Amino acid sequence: METHVAADQLLYLYAFIPTNEQTDTPDMTGIDPDSPIEYISHGDITSIICRVKKDEFDETQLKKNVENMSWLQEKAFHHHEMMNHFHQSYTMIPLKFGTIYETKESLESIVHTHNERITELFQTLKQKNEWNVKIYADKQKFTQSVLEHSPEIEKKKQEIEQLSKGKQFFERRKLDQFVEKQADKEIAEQCENLHEKLLQFSDQSEVKKNWNQKVTGRPEEMCWNSAYLINESDTDRFVQVIQDEKKEAVDKESGLDYAVTGPWPAYHFSSFIEDSDT
Amino acid sequence: MRRESLEQSDVSLLDILDAVLDKGVVLRGDITISIADIDLVYLDLRILLTSVETLIESQNKPREGETVNE
Question: Could you point out which of A4, A6, A55, B24 has its C-alpha 20 to 30 Å from the C-alpha of B2?
Answer without folding.
Answer: B24
